[in-house]
Design a protein that fits this description.
Elements lengths: L4 H11 L4 H8 L3 H9 L3 H34 L5 H38 L1
Helix pairs in contact: 1-2, 1-4, 2-3, 4-5
């Protein structure tokens, strides 16, 4: 099914957090039509897929600048100003447990997937 420009605008507006009323206004649909479209089979999946794609792009951008951010924090640890060093240290210590937890979850998920694949 070919999507119209208005439908794409509606999907994008909903995927980025607009209310149905706001999304309808942004896309040129009436609010009633927007509600009807939301009830159509597959429409919510298209909104969800669009949201996932947007998040994927955002995560990709974050990943591309993460190394630079870490280097900056590392450099700030050597700053003469104690407040700057403290701020950098706090930033590193604040994110470190979260990063470790993510790595641990990934490891455990990989193990579970391997176990599940072996059971088939």
């Amino acid at each position: 099914m070919k999507k119209s420009r208005d439908e794409i605008a509606l999907i994008l507006a909903l995927a980025t957090g607009s209310s149905v009323r706001e999304a309808a206004a942004l896309s040129g649909f009436s609010e009633r039509t927007a509600h009807r479209r939301i009830g159509e089979p597959g429409f919510q999946q298209r909104v969800s897929s669009t949201r996932d794609e947007l998040w994927g792009k955002a995560v990709g951008k974050l990943a591309s600048v993460a190394a630079t951010a870490v280097t900056t924090l590392e450099e700030l640890l050597g700053c003469d100003d104690a407040k700057v060093r403290l701020g950098a240290a706090r930033a590193i210590l604040a994110v470190s447990p979260q990063l470790r937890e993510c790595i641990e979850h990934e490891r455990r998920l990989t193990e579970l997937e391997a176990q599940h694949a072996g059971e088939k």
